[in-house]
Design a protein that fits this description.
The complex is a heterodimer of chains A (112) and B (116). Chain A is mostly beta strands. Chain A contains no helices and eleven strands. Helices cover 0% and strands 57% of the residues of chain A. The N and C termini of chain A lie far apart (41 Å). The chains are: A mainly beta (112), B mainly beta (116). At the A-B interface, strand 4, strand 5 and strand 10 of A face strand 4, strand 5, strand 9, strand 11 and strand 12 of B.
């Protein structure tokens, strides 16, 4: 059974810092991995999707990497801003049509 | 297209009452998923439709839960005889799938259920 964990559970950083969020999954046989952002009481916003054949994806100040063999992904946020404060969730999918299995999330607070 | 929409956004109900939530996916998306999220946790899968066919149900979906997608467009999730443990955010997502390929899931804003 696939399990997804995220470290740390919470993170507080001053504005302008670069930071890394970690995601681990137990079954390396995945179809893709996705990073989401969730603001309090809101739905999910997709940030980056990495297919199993890819090593990384970039969007603006965000860079996500994937190491399938070790069951790890990292989300790198450059030059953090207070508007980045949210919960960041990683999620994996076993097949193209399968459900998404989420980690518990990392709650990020960027202090002005 | 305005994305995935869910109604109502909030629902407060008394224990034992029935509730129904609606999800309208992105119009061309043939796949629709329901998830449940409790405080401090990531969303957990409940069920999934391809067009009108319900293809998978989680063990989380007890007999009190039923989901439909009658015309392959919108979907409803009904909870009968609600319990306090049903209090959660219910999220709907849709995606486009063709052959063996599928595309990322787009999530709606969720329906927050509070059972008193």
């Amino acid at each position: 059974k696939q399990e997804v964990t995220q470290i740390p559970a919470a993170l507080s950083v001053p504005e302008g810092e670069n930071l890394v969020l970690n995601c681990s999954f137990t079954d390396s046989a995945i179809y893709n991995l996705q990073w989401f952002r969730q603001d309090p009481g809101k739905g999910l916003t997709s940030l980056l999707l990495i297919q199993s054949s890819q090593r990384e994806q970039t969007s603006g100040r965000l860079n996500a990497s994937l190491d399938k063999s070790s069951g790890r992904s990292t989300l790198y946020i450059a030059a953090s801003q207070p508007g980045d404060s949210a919960t960041y969730l990683c999620a994996v999918r076993k097949t193209s049509y399968d459900k998404v299995i989420f980690g518990p999330g990392t709650s990020l607070s960027v202090i002005p | 297209d305005t994305g995935v929409s869910q109604n109502p956004r909030h629902k407060i109900t008394k224990r034992g009452q029935n509730v129904t939530f609606r999800c309208d996916p992105i119009s061309e998306h043939n796949r629709l998923y329901w998830y449940r999220q409790t405080l401090g946790q990531g969303p957990e899968f409940l069920t999934y439709f391809q067009n009108e066919a319900q293809l998978e149900k989680s063990r989380l979906l007890s007999d009190r839960f039923s989901a439909e997608r009658p015309k392959g467009s919108f979907s409803t999730l009904e909870i009968q005889r609600t319990e306090q443990g049903d209090s959660a955010m219910y999220l709907c997502a849709s995606s486009l799938g063709r052959d063996d390929l599928t595309y990322e899931q787009y999530f709606g804003p969720g329906t927050r259920l509070t059972v008193t």
